[in-house]
Design a protein that fits this description.
Helix content of chain B: over 70%
Order of helices and strands of chain A: HHHHHHHHHHHH
Oligomer: heterodimer
Radius of gyration of chain B: 20 Å
Structural class of chain B: mainly alpha
Number of strands of chain A: 0
Number of helices of chain B: 12
Order of helices and strands of chain B: HHHHHHHHHHHH
Number of domains of chain B: 1
Number of helices of chain A: 12
Largest sheet of chain B: none
Largest sheet of chain A: none
Strand content of chain B: under 5%
Chain lengths: 239, 261
């Protein structure tokens, strides 16, 4: 029995030594690698400076691949839904336009209420039948209900621009801007949208809407621009 | 242990040969020639490799000592690659192995002997360089600066083991060529692997390069400038010795497997 155990120990010893040696090798390599990277970081050895040395023919492709990989890392590191949406949009945009369209469609299905989903809704607002998805104006209104400024302004402004680029009718454009009448504008930026709305209502002979829009347009004139408000906020925070 | 020291003694006996005395004179001459060389430094824009080995922290690496190390490496490759094949060719190994000496003990003894010769060469050149520097400038190297130069020896230990390992597979000349080529590739792969580390992890090539890099010792770690205290120094020593052990384990496996006739 003792002999048997001794033989077993003798067989196990080289394996233990081997394991210990490899463990020491991999651990020390990892520590030294991190140290070199830390040194490279503190001395700001820029990746771009190194990439600039590459031949012009392959530089752009390498840069593109690095960008995609960086965005993939960002996506993996994202924890909140908002971060995931923003990272996945940026990644899809870097890959191809087709990929971006697919991602937008996926975001609308997966995150229908997230603030960060706005670019996806804007992209598919009244999209043609050939597109992967189409968001109707009432569906868009439903979505913007949960938004707050400044995201709300950007969503309305972006949606309006999309409709114009799709050559939507005046009636559709006016219908799109109607929720603005229910709003209490907080920034001067809205003024432009109220001007457009008043003009559309005038052409559509909708006096009631036109009057309301003109009134709100006037009230917007007294407000400050979003940038100025933001700057004031930053200043007060600094104090 | 006694058997290992016996093999070690046989290997180191070369010191008594006139050829070794000439080698030491050469080492001293090299030391004297490089004693005036400045600290090793590279501009960040002087290339991918050297941008990463800029030397701003801790005692600097002296260019003269790097030259000494390179010369020692040549000695290491030469003696490491020839010793065992010569023993096999002259059948001395048969005489040794008919005694109660295990092949692994023979291998360790040989390794320690060759390492001792290389260390002797390095120290002779280093001491001469320091003395000549003092004689010419009146300045004595600081202890920390000298210690930093001595840490270069850590690169030598795995190199000797690597050469011995290759010499157990190949005859002497081929072993020398293969070792030199392997070291050259190691430097290339190490540089690429450090560069790749700066890239995002999701890049497919990153993991592939990392896997390949594990098969080559990263000699850049030994040239990296730092204060060499704490975990980095421990990691550097562990890296050197673990690599040495891996090479010797492979060599031992081959020694046990191969026919000595």
């Amino acid at each position: 029995m003792n002999l048997h155990m001794q033989t077993g120990r003798m067989k196990a010893a080289p394996l233990i030594v081997l394991g210990a040696v490899f463990l020491a090798y991999f651990t020390s390599d990892a520590v030294l690698r991190q140290f070199v990277l830390y040194r490279a970081g503190t001395q700001s050895i820029s990746l771009n400076a190194i990439l600039d040395k590459l031949p012009a023919e392959i530089r752009d492709e390498v840069r593109q691949r690095i960008l995609v990989a960086e965005l993939k890392d960002k996506l993996l590191a994202a924890t909140t839904d908002g971060e995931k949406i923003l990272a996945s949009i940026a990644l899809a945009e870097a890959i191809s336009d087709k990929n971006l369209q697919e991602k937008y469609a996926e975001i609308i299905d997966k995150y229908p209420t997230a603030t960060e989903s706005a670019p996806a809704f804007i992209n598919y607002l009244m999209a043609p039948n050939t597109a992967l998805k189409s968001v109707s104006i009432p569906r868009y209104h439903e979505y913007i209900k949960q938004l707050h400024d400044p995201e709300l302004f950007y969503a309305i402004d972006g949606g309006y621009s999309t409709l114009k680029s799709r050559k939507a009718s005046q009636k559709e454009l006016l219908a799109f801007l109607l929720p603005l009448l229910e709003l209490k504008p907080t920034y001067r930026e809205y003024q432009r949208l109220y001007v457009e709305m008043a003009e559309l209502a005038f052409q559509e002979e909708n006096q009631d809407v036109e009057l309301k829009a003109r009134k709100l347009e006037e009230s917007c004139g007294k407000l400050s621009f979003y940038d100025k408000t933001l700057a004031a906020k930053v200043k007060s925070t600094k104090k | 242990m006694l058997k290992i020291s016996g093999i070690f003694e046989i290997t180191v006996k070369k010191v008594k040969e006139p050829a070794f005395a000439i080698l030491l004179v050469i080492a001293a001459l090299i030391g004297a020639c490089v004693s005036e060389m400045e600290a090793l430094s590279f501009k960040q824009d002087s290339g991918l490799l050297f941008g990463l080995i800029s030397l701003e922290q801790g005692p600097p690496l002296l260019a003269g000592f790097v030259v000494i190390l390179l010369m020692t490496m040549i000695v290491a490759i030469f003696s490491g690659a020839t010793d065992i094949p010569k023993d096999i060719e002259s059948r001395i190994i048969m005489v040794v192995l008919t005694k109660p000496v295990k092949r692994i003990e023979y291998l360790i003894g040989k390794y320690l002997g060759i390492t001792a010769i290389c260390v002797c060469f390095f120290l002779t050149a280093a001491i001469t360089a320091s003395v000549v520097h003092w004689a010419k400038t009146g300045e004595v190297y600081a202890v920390s600066l000298l210690l930093r130069q001595l840490f270069l020896l850590l690169a030598l230990f795995p190199l000797v083991a690597l050469t011995i390992m290759i010499s157990t597979f190949l005859p002497d000349i081929s072993a020398m060529i293969v070792t030199a080529t392997y070291v050259f590739f190691s430097l290339m792969i190490s540089a690429i692997s450090v560069f790749v580390d700066m890239l995002p992890k999701s890049l497919e090539i990153v993991s592939l390069i990392h896997v390949v890099a594990y098969f080559f010792p990263n000699f850049f770690y030994f040239f990296n400038s730092c204060k060499f205290s704490g975990i980095v120094l421990i990691a550097l020593i562990a890296y050197s010795f673990s690599m040495t052990a891996i090479f010797l384990l492979i060599a031992s496996f081959q020694m046990n497997r191969r026919d000595m006739i």
